[in-house]
Amino acid sequence: MGSRLKDKVAIITGGASGLGFSGVKLFLQEGASVVVVDYDDKQLKKVIKPLEEKGKKVIGIKADVSCEEDWKKVVKKTVAKFKKIDILVNNAGIHIPQDVLHVEAADWQKVLNINALGMVLGIKHCAPIMKKNGGGSIINTSSIGAEIGGFGDGYSVAYSMSKGAVRALTKHASQVLGKDNIRVNTVMPGVMFTDMTVKLGFKSRQELGKIYKGTACLPPFAGEANDIGYLYLYLASDESKYATGSEFIVDGGWVASSGTASDGRTYE
Ligand SMILES: NC(=O)c1ccc[n+]([C@@H]2O[C@H](COP(=O)([O-])OP(=O)(O)OC[C@H]3O[C@@H](n4cnc5c(N)ncnc54)[C@H](O)[C@@H]3O)[C@@H](O)[C@H]2O)c1
């Protein structure tokens, strides 16, 4: 048990699975009280119960991040239970793979509502509570799909656009909230083996990585949840106290290698 987040209160959206759940476990290990927000009630109960049984300072709240009324409920319950909010990880996100020629307007809107509006609403309702307490840290999860277009994200126009919006939101919010000592940063994962990629049909990290060999530099060419969980931890803690408005890429070298020649040359 460490103390990097001692006495801090964190909300993590989409915390019942994948990258968010990695953050939940690491934050608890480092002394934070954690509010896990997710709209999958079944999964939420499944992950919260064992943590509660171990006596962890954790609660689960079923909420849809794209619903403003749900955010009011989340903030009210968090303050009632833990008195304050120091950290918000805007991690919840969905993916509907449709390219620009096949996109359904309703699906596009749904992705934007959850992936982009959901983060706006989280900041709108949590930042005033952080301000009362002297500051805080907000972490917005984007994707390298926002950097390299469709290839990194299953050819999805809505997903890339929503993740581009997250980058702009971070820069905007860091300007608005800096005076209140609230930091806002963007995390840009490459391909990570989580439930999201399982839903896209991949059974293991190795199987997922196989199709990205030559795209990412680091074997097995796909990351795992803790690769991002540890970044969440750094950005949540006071160790990152001078970082705001910035983008943190963890992608096994994918973006760096996207300028690689495609004629079969290797670096062996
Ligand atoms: N896995 C990857 O390769 C990858 C790469 C880049 C970025 N990301 C981003 O990382 C974040 C986490 O992804 P993951 O791979 O852990 O996904 P995941 O599917 O394993 O977990 C996402 C969680 O968010 C929850 N959620 C979805 N919509 C919600 C809503 N409206 N309200 C509340 N909860 C909701 C889901 O129930 C789920 O528990 C997402 O924003 C995703 O876009 C993932």
Could you provide a short overview of the structure?
With 268 residues, the chain is α/β, with parallel strands linked by helices. 43% of the residues lie in helices and 16% in strands.
Polypeptide structure, described:
It is a single chain. By secondary structure, the chain is α/β, with parallel strands linked by helices. The protein has a single domain, classed as Rossmann fold, CATH 3.40.50. The protein has nine helices and nine strands. It is globular. Nicotinamide-adenine-dinucleotide is lined by residues 13-14, 16-20, 38-40, 43, 64-66, 91-94, 114, 118, 141, 143, 189, 191-192, 194-197.
Keywords:
single chain, 268 residues, alpha/beta, Rossmann fold, two-stranded parallel sheet, 9 helices, 9 strands, binds nicotinamide-adenine-dinucleotide
Give the bound compounds: nicotinamide-adenine-dinucleotide
Q: In the residues, how many domains can be counted?
A: 1
CATH secondary-structure class: Alpha Beta
Widest β-sheet, arrangement of strands: 3-2-1-4-5-6-9
User: Structural class from helices and strands?
Assistant: alpha/beta
- CATH homologous superfamily name? NAD(P)-binding Rossmann-like Domain
Secondary structure tally: strands: 9
| Beta-strand residue fraction | 15-25%
Under the CATH scheme, the architecture is 3-Layer(aba) Sandwich
Main β sheet profile: 7 strands, parallel
Summarize model confidence as the mean pLDDT: 94
Radius of gyration: 18 Å
Helix-strand pattern: EHEHEHEHEHHEEHHEHE
Here the CATH topology equals Rossmann fold
Question: What is the subunit organization of this protein?
Answer: single chain
